[in-house]
Every structure is written in structure tokens, then in C-alpha cells.
Amino acid sequence: MMNTIFTPPLYIQRYEFVIDFVKKNKPKKVVDLGCNDCTLLRKLKFHKEIELLAGLDIDCAVIRDKMYELAPIPTDYLQPGDHPLTIELYQGSVTERDPRTKGFDLVTSIELIEHLQLEDVDRFTEVVFGYMAPVAAIISTPNADFNPLLPGLTGFRHYDHKFEWTKVEFQTWALKVCREFGYVVAFTGVGQIPAQEESIGFCSQIGVFQIDRSGGDAPRLQNNVAEEHLPYRVLYNVVYPSLCDSNIFQRTLVNEVLYWAETLKREWLEEIRGRVEAGGRGFEVENEEVGGEGKTDMGQEELYREGQSVCVPLVRLCSCPRVQALSGTVQRLTKFLLENSRVQLTNDGTAVVLVDSDDEDLEWDEKCDNTGTCSFLVSSMENEDWETELGQ
Description:
Blueprint: H1 2-5, H2 10-25, E1 29-33, H3 39-44, E2 52-57, H4 60-66, H5 74-78, E3 86-91, E4 106-110, H6 118-132, E5 136-142, H7 167-181, E6 183-190, E7 204-211, E8 233-239, H8 246-279, E9 284-286, E10 304-306, E11 309-313, H9 314-317, H10 321-327, H11 330-338, E12 351-355, E13 362-369, E14 373-378, H12 386-389
Parallel strand pairs: 1-2, 1-4, 2-3, 4-5
Antiparallel strand pairs: 3-8, 5-7, 6-7, 9-14, 10-11, 11-12, 13-14
Helix pairs in contact: 8-10
């Protein structure tokens, strides 16, 4: 019902609120309590700053139904992140302590607390803010003050809700959390309030809690997993490919080098074809203009020919943004490529050698005269009347 009167739907606004917070604050470790069908986790996994993404829910079936949608997709292997992303899903209760939930940068609890029995709320509070002690927490819950504005609603908004707090009740609870556990809170929400009902607040009220650092940096709890009982059951665990893995790094770098080398070769040959066509059959091009043979010093950036191969200098490849980001310097790029059999380098190791197999329409004259000039012949590209030539 509520999703039909808000645009975008209220649940999407809640997720977008969390995503905006993540974009701004860039937490590395995030856990979603009451993750349900993992919708929020699926959205958060695309944020490269996150290194650990965890979800917890009491309902095993609902997690199992969607958890494989969190698996890496082909682009994650083609373009791995700088750091590994680990995703962990657990079955368990938010009122139980599990040391694997300590030390997170952000805890989210989106429309969860109202599903707890009132007597369990204190336990939930102590587990989240006293035991888990995240740097920040986002807690959202329905605003009971808003209910009279929802057409056709009688009672609670969901059959499983055990209570629904008014704005005052929610803020009273939140401020008590701050006093007891050393946090500060900012109140906000989603679900735009009617202009004439500003005192009511948002349809879904949100408290953004952050550790109070006014007295200095708060101490972070250590994750002593081996020393404590682990009540949560692991349902799913996956580690995404990343450049921290040396094999993945090598494969990614080589793929980028070969891609850009082929791209530069193709562009260079197209330029040569254009010159040949403009000059006609037997058109001569000065050796230095096409990078002639033997120009393999570290400063050489122009492509050149060796026999029937095209050589792409590493200096030129290192100017490609992705290759430069991966390798850093020409010296490091050379070192990495010398260790990989997929890439053929010139004898002096300064250029990638590519066989000129796709340039069948351009005949290279092997003979260059002493004036520094090489000849290029056009075969299939020339528009000639072969029937006339043969006298037919």
C-alpha cells in the first residue's frame, strides 16, 4: 500500500538512503541485519570501497532463495577490483552475540526492529551498540504518527510487526542508546511528509548513529573469533577476484596490454593504408614516419615494423590509462611481461611484437634504400579492371 503512494517506492528510498551514506562515508566493512532477500546487499556489492559485505537473517529459506545472486558475474573477472570483496551470509538472531560481527564500519537495520518482541529490543540494542560497536549504524523503522495518513490502514503496517514507535518513542530510544554506548545520532527519514503535517515526521523514520569522537578516537574491538562461541550458521561465502591475487593481476595486465597493443596496431595500419591510398600504387613512405626498424630505445613511442610483424613500444602502451594504472612504470611493465609467455617482446624487451596477419591487403616491401625510404604496395585495395588487363 505505502509503495503505491510514494515515488519512488518507500523501500527503494530506504535503500537509496543507505547507498548515499556509503558513497559519502566509504565504509570498508558493512553488515545488514535482517537482510531478507539480500536486495540491499546486491546493490552494495558494486561499491568498490567495500571489502567485506555481510548479511544476517533469522529466516534461512529467504536467504537461500536469493543468495547466489550475490555470486561474481563475468565482468568481475574481466575487470577485478583493487581489493577483494568478501560476501558472507549468516542465519541467526540479532539478539545473539557472534564475534564475526565485531569491528564493522557500518551496521544497517532497515525496518527490522519492529519485528522484535519489545522485551528483545534491549537485547538487540546491547548486541548492536555494546557488542558489535560499529563506527556507524543506520536504523529505520515505521513512524506510527504517519499511519493515520495512510489510506485504508488499520492497526500495524505489517502482520508481523510487534510494535510501531511514534517519532517521540523512537527518538527517546535512540538518545538513550547514545548516552549508554557513546554515540551521537541524527534523525531523518524517507517518505515525504505532507507540507501541512510537518510535525508528524517521515513515513519511515531513520536514526543515523555514529561513534562520539568528541573525546578522541573510540577504541575498536578486536575480532577474537577463535576465542568465542559462534552461534550464527554460515549459509554462503564468496570471495570476489581482485588484483591482490598475483595470478589475476598478471592475467588482467596481459589482457589489457594485448588489447591496447592490437588497438594501436590497427589504428597505425589504418593510417598507413590511408597514406598508401592517397599516394597510389608503389607509394613510398619515409622510414622515420612509420617508425622504421631498429628504433627500440626506451623513449621510442611510435610503432614500427620488423619483418611481417608490428612492434608496439612499451612506452606507448604505458601511456594507456588502464595499463599505466596497473603497471605504474615502463620498467615494472617490462618486468611483468618478461614473466608471461602470452606476450612476445622484441629482443631488447622494449616493445610488444604482434604478427601482422590481418594486413593482407598491404604488401610490405622488405627493401629500404639508403635514403631511409621504404616502399608499400597496394594489392586488393586498388580498384583495377583486371578483365581489361587480361584482355578479356
